[in-house]
Structures are given as C-alpha cells and as structure tokens.
Recover the amino acids of this structure.
C-alpha cells in the first residue's frame, strides 16, 4: 500500500473512502427496503389466495372442505399451500400446514425450510396460506451480493490511491 503524499492524493483517497461508505449505507438501506417490499408483495399474494377460497365456500363444512382440497391443487403450481380450519380442526387443504395462529402474516420454520404464512379469519373458519421463503431469500441474496461488490470496488479503489 502506498501512502498518499500529495494533497491531491489525500483528497482522492478521502473521496474514495466516502464513496465506499456511501455504497455501504445505500446497500444497507436498499436491502432493508427490498426485503420489506418483497414481504409485503408476498403477503398480498397469500391473502389473495385466501380470499379466493373464502369466495368459493358456503356454510356447509363438507362443501368447504372439498373446495379447500380443490384450491390446494390449484395453488400448488404457484408454490402455495392452503388449508381451511374450524377451531383446531382442519377441514380441508394441505394437511402439512400447522394449525393457524393469530390473524396476520409471519415467517417461520414449519417442517424444515422457512415459510411465509398468512392467517385470515372467515367467520368461524380460518384460512392459512403459506409459501416457501427460498425464492425470496435467493432474490434478496443476489441484491446483497451486488451491493457488497460495489462496496468492495470502492474500498479497493480507496486503498489503491
């Protein structure tokens, strides 16, 4: 590493370090925003699947269970899992989903990988819709890698001056 001996060299190095700091700050903020927006979009998708199911069921539990099973087959292609519950009893849909929690959306581990799950109350019934977090985490990971590369280039430039 060479020492910046001239005033111009010191200014150039300080500018490069400021650029590295700005890149790091931007990477952190954009990563946090991207994660929040991605989760919000996924929550919207999960709630829309729940609304579709609740729009197709009647008060008859047998008919509702049949519709939940049909809906599970339909949403599986989109990477979703769905189940319909009444109290602590699953009426239909994916038997592998855990019982519903409080209404709302959350991330967690259910049976190994991380899942995003939204729980929606519909009268005495509850709809649970979940999707794997893997595609979301992979996309966010690519953004973080690109941001870290920008920080590394700026830091390397600063050290080279």
């Amino acid at each position: 590493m060479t020492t910046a001996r001239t005033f111009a060299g010191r200014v150039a190095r300080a500018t490069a370090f400021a650029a590295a700091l700005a890149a790091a700050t931007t990477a952190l903020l954009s990563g946090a925003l991207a994660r929040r927006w991605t989760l919000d979009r996924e929550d919207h998708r999960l709630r829309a699947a729940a609304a579709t199911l609740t729009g197709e069921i009647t008060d008859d539990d047998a008919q509702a269970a049949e519709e939940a099973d049909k809906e599970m087959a339909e949403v599986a292609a989109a990477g979703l899992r769905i189940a319909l519950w009444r109290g602590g009893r699953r009426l239909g849909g994916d038997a592998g989903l855990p019982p519903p929690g409080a209404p709302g959306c959350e991330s967690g581990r259910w049976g190994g990988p991380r899942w995003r799950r939204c729980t929606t109350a519909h009268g005495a019934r509850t709809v649970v819709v979940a999707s794997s977090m893997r595609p979301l985490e992979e996309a966010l990971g690519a953004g973080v890698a690109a941001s870290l590369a920008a920080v590394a280039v700026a830091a390397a430039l600063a050290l080279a001056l």
Notes: The mean pLDDT is 85. Residues 61 and 109 are 29 Å apart (CA to CA). The longest strand covers residues 114-122.
